[in-house]
Specification:
The complex is a heterodimer of chains A (230) and B (319). Chain A is mainly α and 230 residues long. Chain A contains eleven helices and no strands. In chain A, helix 7 packs across helix 8. Chain B is mainly alpha-helical and 319 residues long. Helices cover 73% and strands 1% of the residues of chain B. Chain B contains 14 helices and two strands; from the N terminus they run αααααββααααααααα. Chain B has a two-stranded antiparallel ribbon with strand order 1-2. In chain B, a hairpin with a 2-residue loop joins strand 1 and strand 2. In chain B, helix 5 packs antiparallel against helix 6 and helix 10 runs antiparallel to helix 11. Classes of the chains: A mainly alpha (230), B mainly alpha (319). Chains A and B meet through helix 1, helix 2, helix 3, helix 4 and helix 5 of A and helix 1, helix 3, helix 4, helix 5 and helix 6 of B.
């Protein structure tokens, strides 16, 4: 039970807004000590796990490309492009992206998308550009909201798509877990039972993106009457 | 194989070494040496990770956390292009600007699906065990070459731009790996078993709905703590899913697995511990509130979790 101290450290640390990097180190050391892990082993676990998970940082490889293109007007061009499509609204662009992201992930194409290669350079500027084209300059809080929703479309699409692809790691993990316990399942069976949730995720999030358009329209309506009134 | 994961890591290390060098030269940087030390240590983990003994790597990791904790990782000054220049360039280059970005996913997919078995001189071209990551590496190099040709920029400018982007993301770029180390320590200290004993002793095991709800909500909560549904699944499945839903109440194990994992993903949408999905993107999109992506996702995650509880309850005992 004492080993749960790490969880307590994490919750308190995040709640009090300490630097998350420090919180994690303190929680890790506390957990190790409480679980009677020798200090040297704690250190080597930090090192090993950090190295083993270096793949999480590979978005860095996309930055030289994105940076170079941004320097030459990539985001501006993304906004130009959507301003030419009359039917484009923030919500519709994001719903389309959510759909493509989820469908591609379900077919195993999880690398079609992502925050560094797609959302920052293309999707978020397009979502912002569509609103700006219709209503004029956006206040910061709306701009940030649109960006946050752009990131959310990527996450929701990826998470609830990838799990219905049979060769995905999570499916194999679940199959492996049951095998250790003497239950043998086909990956396809697990994947198929994910479909109802995958559909529900799309419906719920797409509805919220549709409502985002309404919010933008209402907020900008208020702002534009103020602008013309003064 | 010719293109291994290690090679991709060396390339990443090389980029980070370039970032470190530029930060060191930035005389007006408010925390020049500490920031450079942080990026330098990070570069070392990519370049020499295989040579450095694990416990010394652990010391490096803790050192990085301390530098971040004392506010040592800051933004510097960058020679950015002006708005007018960018609008002008966008006009000249037009939709050609999209090609390199789109090349990244397209080449990655081609590598993953199309040429995974290709051999040159008897050697596999791509690392089969890490096919997606190896393909991503190749894709980024191809896209970078195309981008330099299209924009006619000096290659050094891409490292300058990388430094601008990296320093705007700051230490949160490293947070996902940091959290993974915590998962490692939780595992060897037996945190999982402690949680499943605790939860198992707290619910009325005879009530089917209570068991199902405890399992799904437990998956979400434990994922929020661990930042990762993969880490939560073995714990909750061993604690509740298998003994109570499958064995005691005769539920379908495939449904327990599928919907359980998705309940965990609802947790992923709501936690700063899933830094690579929630915190890094907030930094990448220049959002002042690091939790704004999570805030945009909560109203999707909570109803979806409820849907999961209901789906699980109505499906698991009937199929």
């Amino acid at each position: 039970m004492l080993s749960l101290i790490g969880i307590v450290v994490v919750i308190i640390g995040f709640a009090l807004r300490f630097n998350p990097m420090l919180v994690v180190v303190v929680a890790g050391i506390a957990t190790g000590i409480a679980g009677n892990v020798p200090f040297e082993k704690i250190l080597s676990t930090f090192g090993e796990a950090f190295l083993k998970n270096r793949y999480l940082a590979l978005f860095i490889l996309t930055l030289p490309v994105i940076g170079l293109l941004e320097r030459n007007g990539l985001r501006e061009q993304a906004q130009n492009l959507v301003s030419k499509i009359e039917a484009a609204t923030t919500g519709r662009i994001l719903i389309l992206y959510l759909f493509i992201r989820e469908a591609a992930a379900a077919l195993g194409l999880t690398s079609l998308g992502g925050h560094a290669p797609m959302v920052r350079p293309l999707i978020a500027p397009m979502a912002e550009g569509a609103a700006e084209h219709k209503f004029g300059k956006l206040p910061d809080y709306l701009r940030f909201k649109i960006r946050a929703f752009s990131a959310s479309a990527d996450n929701v699409g990826l998470f609830f798509g990838e799990d219905i692809f049979i060769a995905f790691g999570a499916i194999l993990l679940m199959k492996g877990f049951y095998e250790q316990n003497g239950i043998f399942l086909e990956p396809l069976e697990i994947a198929l039972w994910g479909i109802p949730t995958a559909i529900a995720a799309f419906i719920i999030h797409a509805t919220r993106l549709y409502l985002l358009d309404r919010t933008i329209e209402r907020e900008m309506g208020k702002i534009n009457t103020d602008r013309s009134g003064s | 194989m010719i293109i291994s994961l290690d090679l991709i890591y060396y390339l990443t290390g090389f980029i980070m070494a370039g970032v470190t060098f530029l930060t060191l030269r930035d005389r007006s940087h408010p925390k020049r040496y500490l920031t450079a030390l942080f990026w330098g240590l990070y570069a070392i983990s990519f370049l020499f990770g295989n040579e450095i003994p694990a416990k010394y790597m652990g010391v490096i990791v803790i050192l990085m956390a301390i530098i971040a904790g004392i506010g040592g990782v800051r933004m510097g000054t960058y020679s950015q292009t002006s708005d007018e220049h960018r609008v002008e360039r966008a006009k000249t280059l037009g939709n050609k600007l999209f090609w390199p970005t789109l090349l990244i996913p397209v080449v990655t997919v081609i590598g993953t699906v199309g040429i995974k078995d290709m051999r040159i001189g008897g050697f596999l071209l791509l690392d089969k065990g890490n096919i997606t990551l190896a393909s991503l590496g190749v894709a980024c190099v191809v896209a970078w070459l195309v981008a330099t040709i299209f924009t006619k920029e000096a290659p050094a400018n891409s490292i300058k731009e990388t430094r601008r982007l990296m320093e705007s993301i700051g230490w949160s770029a490293v947070l996902p790996q940091m959290l993974a180390t915590l998962g490692g320590l939780f595992a060897i200290a037996g945190v999982g078993q402690a949680v499943s004993t605790l939860v198992g002793s707290a619910i009325p095991v005879d009530n089917r709905f209570a068991v199902v709800a405890a399992y799904a909500i437990g998956m979400a909560l434990f994922t929020m703590i661990m930042g990762n549904a993969f880490a939560a699944f073995p714990v909750m499945a061993a604690g509740i899913g298998l003994p109570l839903i499958v064995v005691m109440h005769g539920g379908n194990p495939a449904i327990v697995a599928a919907i359980g994992m998705f309940s965990g993903y609802c947790g992923t949408l709501m936690t700063p511990m899933a830094a690579n999905y929630n915190i890094v993107p907030a930094a990448l999109l220049d959002l002042p509130d690091k939790n704004s992506v999570i805030k945009a996702q909560i109203a999707t995650a909570v109803p979806l979790l409820l849907v999961n509880v209901l789906l699980l309850y109505f499906l698991v005992f009937n199929f």
